[in-house]
Amino acid sequence: MFYCDREADIIEVNPAFLKLYGYRREEVIGRNPRILRSDHTLPELYKRMWEGIADPVRGFWRGPIVNKAKDGREIPMLLSITAIRDTEGAEGIIGFMAVGMDMTEQLSLKTRVAQSEALANIGEMAAVVAHEIRNPLGSVVIAANQLATDSVAPEDKGMVMKLLRSESKRLTDVLAGFLAYARPPSLRLARADLNALVTEVLGIAQSNRELMRHTRVSVSLDPSLKSCAMDSDQVRQVVWNIMVNALQAMDGYGKLTVTTGREPGWVFFRVRDTGPGIPEPVLREILKPFFTTKQQGTGLGLATADRIVKAHGGVIGVESRPGEGAVFTVRLPETEA
């Protein structure tokens, strides 16, 4: 703890302050708390700090900050500073009281927990990779051996070649899904038209007869949408993953409704299906990596979409009731590049 006068010069500190920062009491009394400033703390933070303290209603600031000890050590702190007043208004401030907590141990624990979670995810990913690759890889090996040893009857060669191509594609898709999720989203922001992007992806989906089958499509695009900052390639992947998820849920029958629009501060696109819906326990897990209700699949399509949207500062909302289909809404910040 330390206390300052109206000029923000230190008038008293407690023993914990001296122990943490390595100063003697006479070295800090009468000096400005700027002696604690770290080069890694931006001036904007101090500007917001003073605005909060000087505010006659709020009168305090609280937040994380990095301070510097006498020996140059950088110390992450949770700091709270309160203005002491004898009358209302900024002119009534007679001093300041600051209380800080050293967050070094907490942040170290947080890092260790994050590392443990990362290792657990790697283990889970390895198990899913092994499961998803084992069967198609085995089929590829068998088919290749049959063709290499010429042990396939002439009338069966076409079927074996088809199996080889389909299982090779399945392997490629599985590995592409893992790479897309494992690669941290590095955004290349530029102005893009969300309506045009959604239209493009929908056109690709509609050209896939196996995916669409007898599905009916309804589209409503908001003409007032302006182009905004996004990584077009990655958002295109998000739209595709969510559309494919909806189409697979309906198994080729039902109605797919695609809309775009605006909300205060956001642009959004929404995909609604008339599939079986999502049970509540599944709804809570559906955006998590490796979670899937399908017999085949890595459970990374929606998880990858969620990572990309969060990297943009957006959010994915999911609503559903069993028997009533599902609605996925992707909201992205309405910002300019």
Tell me what you see in this structure.
The two termini are 44 Å apart. The protein has helices spanning 15-21, 25-28, 43-54, 104-148, 157-182, 194-206, 209-212, 232-250, 280-285, 301-311; strands at residues 2-5, 10-13, 60-68, 74-85, 93-102, 190-192, 216-220, 228-230, 255-263, 266-273, 315-320, 326-333. With 337 residues, it is of the alpha+beta class. The relative contact order is 0.08. The protein has three domains: 2-102, Beta-Lactamase (2-Layer Sandwich), CATH 3.30.450; 108-182, Helix Hairpins; 190-333, 2-Layer Sandwich (Heat Shock Protein 90), CATH 3.30.565.10. The strands form three sheets. It has a five-stranded antiparallel beta sheet with strand order 2-1-5-4-3.
List keywords for this structure.
337 residues, alpha+beta, Beta-Lactamase, Helix Hairpins, Heat Shock Protein 90, 3 domains, 5-stranded antiparallel sheet, 5-stranded mixed sheet, 12 strands
Topology:
Elements: E1 2-5, E2 10-13, H1 15-21, H2 25-28, H3 43-54, E3 60-68, E4 74-85, E5 93-102, H4 104-148, H5 157-182, E6 190-192, H6 194-206, H7 209-212, E7 216-220, E8 228-230, H8 232-250, E9 255-263, E10 266-273, H9 280-285, H10 301-311, E11 315-320, E12 326-333
